[in-house]
Amino acid sequence: MKYDYLIVGAGLFGSIFAYEAGKRGKKCLVIDKRSHIAGNIYTNKIEDINVHQYGAHIFHTSNEKVWSYIQQFAKFNRYTNSPVAVYKEELYNLPFNMNTFHQLWKVNSPAQAKEMIQKQIKESGITNPKNLEEQAISLVGKDIYEKLIKGYTQKQWGQSAKELPSFIIKRLPVRFTYDNNYFNDLYQGIPIGGYTQMIEKMLKDSEIRLNTDYFENREELYSLADKIVFTGMIDEFYNYQFGTLEYRSLSFESEVLEEENHQGNAVVNFTEYEIPYTRIIEHKHFEFGTQPKTVITREYPKTWTKGDEPYYPVNNEKNNKMYEQYKELAQKEETVIFGGRLAEYKYYDMHHVIEQALTCIEQEFD
Ligand code: FAD
């Protein structure tokens, strides 16, 4: 065999695997059907700004092992995710905290904010929420729901909140402090210089073939290596024999603007239903950029059909059951390792993917 591993997918999972295998003297061929490495964390330089091509990516973790592991590939800045939400002409801080409550009701104390939320929950009279709308109102009351959750969620899922199941929202964290930091994690930041350079370092000893779809040349590629690390869609790997796993997709519309600072924040959510996009990302703010121009990206949620980019798995009962059937086949494979968000049909943040990849490496090599 020419290679020890054929790695399908040059995203975070595949690249960590390639790096660790390379360190152990193994030869890897990494293929990706896209024209670039890094999968969904790909950053592309436009006007000297690192543009997050597949949506805003903010690294955060409380896992010491993951945080110290990733430091070898980049220096991280002090970026803290503190999105704002625009509803009609009003502007609110997120996540829901004392700033938001002051903006909504002009209250200044945690006791007043708590009282307001409790009053609205009580007034709703909902004791057994039957859909997402009722669930949200029973957790945070009508005002927060109407202005900051309803339209955004309906755009995200392409369905009315009354038709969506309540389980989509399990908790809606509210903070009674003036804290706009979106994440609760111990560590957070953006790799200075973007994510792509991190992946370049991981793939430095591997052979890379881009614009190469595994399924277009399956037989030949399969014969090149002893083992396969597959990070694509698990249902496609098995020719959709149990059916097609569903996703939600997104489309991104980017624009270079002849101004230095468009919205003053990296992430602005648009929560009213009538605006078709959910967010505008202004990329330079991730790295505190001072370039003369700026690049913004509008993010539009959309229905996924086969062939579209699969972004968010729809983990309902039907799909999860179907995934279990595929997983059973996968567990019987002796020469194929499945990993990453598409092969495991799970929404994974980057730190989860790193954790999974490191566990997989331990199992494979130690
Ligand atoms: P991917 O990056 O998708 O890599 C898989 C690769 O396999 C792709 O490049 C694909 O082209 C390739 N591939 C698939 N099939 C084939 C085939 N048949 N042949 C060849 N190649 C193939 N995480 C965070 O921690 N923080 C965030 O702020 C954050 N924001 C996000 C925002 C959005 C909009 C999305 C969608 C995700 C976000 N994530 C975030 C999650 C993050 O993107 C993932 O955790 C990470 O990219 C997953 O890495 P992966 O290697 O599993 O998958």
UniProtKB/TrEMBL annotation:
Pfam families assigned to the protein according to its UniProt record, in alphabetical order: GLF, NAD_binding_8
The EC number(s) this enzyme carries: 5.4.99.9
Domain UDP-galactopyranose mutase C-terminal: 147-347
Record GO terms (molecular function): flavin adenine dinucleotide binding; UDP-galactopyranose mutase activity
Cofactors required: FAD
InterPro entries linked to this entry: UDP-GALP_mutase, UDP-GalPyranose_mutase_C
One cellular-component annotation, GO: cytosol
Keywords associated with the record: FAD, Flavoprotein, Isomerase
Family: Belongs to the UDP-galactopyranose/dTDP-fucopyranose mutase family.
Protein name, per record: UDP-galactopyranose mutase
Source organism of this protein record: Lachnotalea glycerini
Gene this protein is translated from: glf
